[in-house]
């Protein structure tokens, strides 16, 4: 099969490699669409040659391998791209994944749209409902208290806004002015322009100094500090998608808890991340896998009903176009949309 794999020199290219074979508890998927995430291009320089790149996918079951899935059934999910033992990667004609780690794509949803959902949606679910311990959509808040979604127009942020609204919260999101309409259409109750240097003070006004929960979908050192300033003077809890620590915050913010989370814990296995200091990582993570499997069962109804809308997307081409897509994202030319690749 063809796949976009890491090669010598810290880069990646399309090559011919053997088809993968599913082991017990796994299925083989024919990939129709794969979507791009920043983690895809960021991982390439740090992996040895021969790793398959890419996480998000949608396609059809090629070999159910004794599972409850049917051959030809439309499914979507994400894998830990560039990993080995087991070898995983979505930028390929075929991939192998756990049979419990995909969701059934409803007929009303295109495979292109479905390919943009899983990784970012899982990140938002994990951050808000496991790490921040917010009310879940199945048992929404009885009164709307505020949450801040910083980086609301990021792929993760767009799903976080929708999930927070389904959970009955008062959703404040940051985004550039041209994307305020998109954020309000997805459920944001208030949107502030992150380009305004005083935006944390604006958020504190909007939340009447009651904001105690925030999800930083950007998680640079300066953005997490700004989010912390927006929290209530009583303190609060910030969850980040990159490794951040409370010790990095400026003086005067000692009441703020800062926690980082990494979505790959949903696979349940202990995976060596080297020296990357993520919280909630170490040994096996069966609780995180079980939590994600619950939402995999819920997701088909969410997207079929329109409760969760897929990221806006732009189809760039096939496997050969991925290098171009990586360059576009590295140059900051991908905003409020997901790049997708048509594989089959």
From TrEMBL:
Domain Enoyl reductase (ER) per the UniProt entry, residue ranges: 9-341
InterPro entries reported for this sequence: ADH-like_C, ADH-like_N, ER, GroES-like_sf, NAD(P)-bd_dom_sf, Trans-enoyl_RdTase-like
UniProt keyword terms in alphabetical order: Oxidoreductase
CDD domains: enoyl_reductase_like (cd08249)
GO molecular function per UniProt: oxidoreductase activity, acting on NAD(P)H
Keyword Oxidoreductase: yes
Pfam families: ADH_N (PF08240), ADH_zinc_N (PF00107)
Similarity comment: Belongs to the zinc-containing alcohol dehydrogenase family.
UniProt protein name: Enoyl reductase (ER) domain-containing protein
Source organism: Xylaria grammica
């Amino acid at each position: 099969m063809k796949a976009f794999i890491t090669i010598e020199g810290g880069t990646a290219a399309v090559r011919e490699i053997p088809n993968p074979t599913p082991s017990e508890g796994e299925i083989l998927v024919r990939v129709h669409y794969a979507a791009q995430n920043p983690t895809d291009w960021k991982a390439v320089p740090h992996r040895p040659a021969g790793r398959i790149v890419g996480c998000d996918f949608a396609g059809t079951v090629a070999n159910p391998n004794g599972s409850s899935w049917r051959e030809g059934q439309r499914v979507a999910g994400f894998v830990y791209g560039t990993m080995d033992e087991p070898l995983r990667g979505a930028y390929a004609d075929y991939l192998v994944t756990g049979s419990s780690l995909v969701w059934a794509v409803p007929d009303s949803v295109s495979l292109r749209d479905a390919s943009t959902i899983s990784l970012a949606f899982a990140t938002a679910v994990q951050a808000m409902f496991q790490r921040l311990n917010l009310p879940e959509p199945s048992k929404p808040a009885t009164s709307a208290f505020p949450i801040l979604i910083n980086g609301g127009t990021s792929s993760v942020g767009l799903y976080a806004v929708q999930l927070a609204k389904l959970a009955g919260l008062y959703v404040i999101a940051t985004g550039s002015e041209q994307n305020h309409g998109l954020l309000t259409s997805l459920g944001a109750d208030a949107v502030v322009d992150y380009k305004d240097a005083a935006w944390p003070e604006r958020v504190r006004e909007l939340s009447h100094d009651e904001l105690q929960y925030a999800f930083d979908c950007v998680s640079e050192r300066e953005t997490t500090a700004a989010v912390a300033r927006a929290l209530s003077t009583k303190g609060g809890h910030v969850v980040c998608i990159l490794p951040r620590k409370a010790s990095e915050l400026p003086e005067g913010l000692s009441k703020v808890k800062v926690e980082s989370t990494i979505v790959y814990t949903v696979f349940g296995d202990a995976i060596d991340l080297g020296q990357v200091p993520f919280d909630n990582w170490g040994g096996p993570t069966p609780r995180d896998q079980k939590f994600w499997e619950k939402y995999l069962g819920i997701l088909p109804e969410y997207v079929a009903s329109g409760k969760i809308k897929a990221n806006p997307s732009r189809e760039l081409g096939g496997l050969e176009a991925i290098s171009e897509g990586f360059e576009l994202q590295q140059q900051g030319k991908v905003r409020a949309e997901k790049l997708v690749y048509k594989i089959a």
